[in-house]
Amino acid sequence: MKTEYLKKIFFNCSLSALIINIPATASGTGRGEGVAYEASGVATVEFRHEAAQDRRETTVPGCVVCHLGAAERLILSFDVIGGNTESLYYSFAHCNADWQPSDLMEMEYMDGFNRIYDEEECSMSFNTTTAYAHYELTISTAPLMASGNYMIEVRRTRDDAMLVRVPMWMSEELCGVASRVERKESTQDVELAVIWPDHGISSPETQMTVAVWQNKRIDDLRKADGPTFVRRDEIVYQSQSEFSFCGGTEWRWLDTRSIRLPGISGSRVEYVTPMYHYTMATDNTPRAYTYREDFNGGSWVETRDRRDGAAEVVADYGMAHYTFAPEDPALLGNGEVYVLGDATGWEPSAGNRLTPDPRSMTFTGQHLVKQGLHNYLYASRKIGETRAPQTEVTEGCYGDTENDYYIAVYARRPGETYDHLVAMRRHNTLKTRNDFVM
User: Fold this and answer.
1) What is the value of pTM for the model shown?
2) Is the peptide bond before 348 cis (omega within 30 degrees of 0)?
3) Which pLDDT tens digit goes with each residue over 374-418?
4) What is the spatial order of strands in the sheet that 420-428 belongs to?
């Protein structure tokens, strides 16, 4: 019965639509096509420092933050489903604090030619049901001469079609940031002080921008209108309503490491030509908070079925089937529900939106995922809203939840033409000491 159901929903779409024209996913501010971008047919985008090879303390790499003048090396990897090896190049695009293109010309932020082909590696998948080309690009930050927000864009040489775009932060580290997260019953409030003697900022309200976001959810990036007050060498942001976040709850797990043995998510695995399908039990809104370690939305590629090559090229793809039963049935008629995370994208899009099913009183959907461990959560918003979807209705809000918060401090002094990123801090609610004190 289950197999017939899978065949029905699978073959309602053409094979080419599922394999070649995978819905694009994006993660960004909600303006235009967002900050990050994946073209149709591109999957499993991973971006990290070269040294971040292994999982440590149950974490995966978060937002990529670099330091101006440090000449750091980064790895950008991704798969092109059904693709062949071809020559690609990457380039840097400089942005302001709001992720819009800055006024700088390439020669002002880039030392050299901004079309780089160096150190590209490509391998074809080996004995997998889904054929794909796996790319790994080694990227050096040495040519960059200005701090701020950057987008790294990867294109095909033959027609300049963009395949991937990922965000990167280049910081000057001119000042310090003391921060704390006040964990209340349902919210987590971020408070901070920018510690910057002789900062040369005469009007912080107009010459400084402070942005805060939770985990890698740049689509829900918050900016303060201005500091609460300035004291001595500190610019203080306290009790800012913009920096009050729903705590959410710990992330859900999808374990696709094996097609033979059930993983920690307990998904059912069946093969329906031409690929495997992972069907999870119906998810509900948690009624109480339970702590469990997670990746804060990250993914980790791994297979327990193969030992004949690197996981990057022997791990297979399968279709993950999600089912969410809302606590409030009214959401089926007036709400949109999305599956968010590294595997499905961080911004709401057609590729990660679930479909309401009034007969079963659930939202359902599917997404192509590579074998491994994947975190995901459900977020919702009312139909027609443009704000970032929230987790209050779908996941609950618990102040004790473990989350990462990123704090970015930008400055633009009189006469300057772009937003300098002068400091950046990552604050974990469990592992980072609250060092902002009044």
Assistant:
1) 0.90
2) no
3) 999 999 999 999 999 999 999 999 999 999 999 999 999 989 999
4) 222-223, 208-214, 404-411, 420-428
